[in-house]
Amino acid sequence: MPLVSAFASSSSALRRGPLARVRRLLVAAATRARSSSRARGGLPRFHAPSLPSSKGEVVRIQGDEFWHMTRVLRLGVSDRVELFDGAGGLVQGSITKVEKGGSDVELLEDARLIAPQGIQWHVFAAFGTLKGGRADWLIEKCTELGACSVTPLLTERCHTIAENRVDRMQRLVLAAVKQCQRIHEMSLKPPIQIGNLLPVVSQSKLAFLASAEAPPLLRVLPKSSNEQSGLLIIGPEGDFTEEEVHGLKSAGAAPVGLGPCRLRVETATISLLSALMLWSDANHQETQQCS
Amino acid sequence: MPLVSAFASSSSALRRGPLARVRRLLVAAATRARSSSRARGGLPRFHAPSLPSSKGEVVRIQGDEFWHMTRVLRLGVSDRVELFDGAGGLVQGSITKVEKGGSDVELLEDARLIAPQGIQWHVFAAFGTLKGGRADWLIEKCTELGACSVTPLLTERCHTIAENRVDRMQRLVLAAVKQCQRIHEMSLKPPIQIGNLLPVVSQSKLAFLASAEAPPLLRVLPKSSNEQSGLLIIGPEGDFTEEEVHGLKSAGAAPVGLGPCRLRVETATISLLSALMLWSDANHQETQQCS
User: Fold this and answer.
1) Architecture of domain B120-290 in CATH?
2) Which of A66, A71, B206, B252 has the smallest set of CB atoms within 10 Å of its CB?
3) Which residue intervals define the domain Ribosomal RNA small subunit methyltransferase E methyltransferase in the entry (chains A, B) (predicted)?
4) Do A181 and B262 count as a contact with CB atoms less than 8 A apart?
């Protein structure tokens, strides 16, 4: 029996008296725990890598998601849930069976495929040398803020990234995707040499390079844009070399300033991404209202 | 003898052969270590809580700053440095004495007093219940991004903050102030009850409340502003209660949306602050160019 119901069915004396406060706190804590994996005002949501497409089909939930469903949220047979596959697939279902190693969810409708909205931002940041969990933060926050992909950028002053880091980051991405209720997973791409980034920049009409002494970002941004995607480029600790900056600018990246303070790599990334996400969100809503 | 010089004076064979790469890496590491407490392209900078005002006067550097000056950066007699007091005071000096417990720096000019520029942003965030270093991160990033002050906000769903946290955060602020080269320290204020925030909001012409389902921030922001300061208000995990939101709106806070994703408390704070700092920075530079 879920914690909340167990308390709700206790004597009504609990609503008064000295225990009333304890009860209110416990109910509040349980409500918070539930709400953390629940779409705002909606059903609790779980990740199923492979989602069937038609009403009535059954999907098996295992591993961490099963544990989260049955142990953390204490859901059981007949409880309704939402399933997503990280690629835009979303569907409501009902739990039909709970066993030791997994649970079955029956689809209550045909799965919907939701297209990504607004400009898709691709982050190229030289974070391979960051220490003290700063790279983890960068990845988690990029996921939460809605970046489409993150690619570790290899430059003269940041020429490597440990392999085991990438595995760890992949787990962080999934946790953050669930936490922030993204329908589309963020893609963590293999590291790229700065030389190989230049042709990508040349093909993009929206490419921004975080740079000290450049004009403020909000003065460089166009009023609106019809582009589908854009690039954010952030240098390493110790910055790009002059030749690297020259190469990026020649390829068409617009240098943008991020305010008067000197920002760390992860802070510059988050600051630039936040501003661009808010800009494209405002654009997107405006376009929708006009159409 | 500093690491760089020690290597520089070694046999020139080091410039070729298999050790050349090791040498380059060590030189690069030492350069990075030095640059981290150096104004961009300027002198290494240290904090002196009380700064004399006139050329020729001497100030004693002790504690962490002394250690950083003499052990990390290996500075000695005759080396030039920059001193700041965190309240806008800034001056160049020269080291005249290095002893066991501290060093003396003689002022090479009269101290300058630099006024804060642009809109001063005051952050009110309900971060008392954040775990896993998230509150620390919030404080560090607010300092780095240039917030004027941060105040823990106490609400119905976040009604406390541990006292020992505040001490720890104070240390984080100073470390971040030095790292990002702020001339003015960020002020970490005592916690405030949400009821006591309402009159502050009423008196402010720029007060923004992070809120799901609100219009996007960049559509709510005025084109420019002559205000000296503004407020950012961010709710706790589990959000404000409806009454709290109603109270804040009635007092004049503008609800603003931060994009389609559900953000954690610390991410919402950084995202909102980043965008507002970039907005006021763009405004400030425009005003300066016009005048």
Assistant:
1) 3-Layer(aba) Sandwich (3.40)
2) A71
3) 122-277
4) yes
